[in-house]
Specification:
mainly alpha; two-stranded antiparallel ribbon; 53% helix
Length: 250
Amino acid sequence: MTSLPAPLLGSQSSPSSPQWRIPGKSILIHHDEVLGLIGLSREEDKAYSFDQIQPSFGKLEPEAERISNTESQTWSPYEKALMRLTRNLSFYNRLKHTLAQPGRDHLESEFTLFLASVDAALAEAEKKNQSQEFSTEVIDTAALRMRGILQWATLTSIYTVPSGKGEDTWRKLPDSVIDAIDEGGLHPATLAYARIGDAYRADDTSAFNSAVDSYQKWLAENRPIFQKKGLCGSDLQPHRPILPLHGRST
């Protein structure tokens, strides 16, 4: 049995949501039967956009589930092509959520609201423990924001915060936001990456480069070994493309 590629979480977000789109047609489909399943006709370059394929996710996912429950050695050319497409869509989905939380417009403000909601929920939980009146709405709001952060953690593979316990213990950006609950505030690297993402979506070159500079300065002062080894930060130069679509330049 072959495991199913990562689900297309967040793929149903509205056109106005802040998820990044790779411009043009970037997803290749060569098999006519797969094209028929998703209601597309063959194009000369055999390339299609994410938005062209998205309406057919409801058809793709059951087929991928069915195929994943069989041995890959028995897959037909159609089944191989469909599984390849599903994997590519999953990779695309992870890419567009690298520095973009599904359904949220601004990372820095969302992180601040998340921490405030958790603090408020903890206070209400303490009231509940003491048999006092408490607000379930406040607790539910925090739980909803927590679920959003946890879901996002499955979609991004960007590591932002070194733990100081070795090269293999960096924390993902969403995980570092959750860590901030116990640490009393956002880590400088977490805040820098939030600002990098927000500036990128706003097409704000000055803010983008400022956030990159801030992160590099923090690394130089606190984790110089990582810069020397090129483990992190060395490619975060102003005016250079650090993100998938295009760089920020003046």
